[in-house]
Amino acid sequence: MQDAVEMLMLAIVDHLQVLMPKNWRFMDFWAEIKKSHTEPPQRILMDSLNKMRVSLKHNGIPPNAQKVRDLLPRVETFCEDVTKSYLDGMEFSDLSLADLVANDDVRNTLREAQQALNGGNKNDAFTKLRVAFDKLYREVSTEVPLIREPGKGRTGHPTLDKAVEQSVQTINVLMLGIDPIKFRFFMSNTPIVSWTLSGIHQAVLQRNYDNMPDSVFETCFDFVVEVSLKISELFRASSVQPPT
User: Fold this and answer.
1) pLDDT digits over 77-122, tens only?
2) Alpha helices, DSSP H, located in 60-190
3) What's the CA gap between 214 and 117, in Å, rounded?
4) Could you tell me the residue ranges of all domains in the chain?
């Protein structure tokens, strides 16, 4: 919790262009912000959180579990308040890892997936996750010389064709710096999506996703974001700008 709050503080300080001391500490946030803006709320609460973290990290004293549970909703309220106050009225609940995705189309598709999940339509949510990944993969394949996947029925032996296809996919994801185990998990837990040359896709549901745990969706969602960041690094390293 303390690390999460501190990262939000860093974002606020950067956005407001507040000049902080060179080696500023967690609790300096209140004093420095107050010099040019309204003083942030919940200073005493955050001081308690910080002391818990110091006791655990530096003194090896575990915090009381119930106190930690009690802090969770109060820390979330703090994050909501400071986000709205110092980040131009932004809603904390609207922030998402999808905001890290550079490609506009992929980012919007991930947001649609999250909205579908929140609306209880898990089949659509998991389909959009797969579509978002495919869009990323199709994007990078136009710029990076990946190994071309063999066409179906090339050998006349379906089992062999499938093994060759999966082997080529694994080599390609390794070339892109993507974890192949996470890749297989993602592919196994999302629908099959086929694409026409004109860019129209059609999904084939491998199961009914209504009973799929939300944790699986979150893992797959995080994977797509991770792949997006990997691809952005790849484009930066090669000085190639990805289309948006």
Assistant:
1) 999 999 999 999 988 887 877 887 888 899 999 999 999 999 999 9
2) 65-86, 104-118, 122-141, 158-175, 180-188
3) 8
4) 2-94, 97-237
Q: Provide CB contacts within 8 A for 5, sequence distance 6+.
A: 46, 49, 75, 78, 79
Q: How far is residue 60's CA from residue 41's CA, in Å, rounded to a whole number?
A: 29
Cβ atoms 144, 178 nearer than 8 A = no
| Spatial distance between the Cα atoms of 232 and 16, rounded to a whole number of angstroms | 27
CB 107 within 8 Å of CB 101: yes
Q: Is 205 helix (H, G, I), strand (E, B) or coil?
A: coil
Rounded Cα distance, 64 and 49, in Å: 12
Q: Which of 18, 240, 221, 1 is nearest to 101 (CA)?
A: 221
pLDDT by residue (tens digit) across 28-54?
Answer: 999 999 999 999 999 999 999 999 999
- Supply the pTM of this predicted model: 0.67
* C-beta separation of 87 from 11 below 8 A: yes
Instruction: Say which DSSP state 40 is in.
Output: P
Q: What 3-state class would DSSP assign to 196?
A: coil
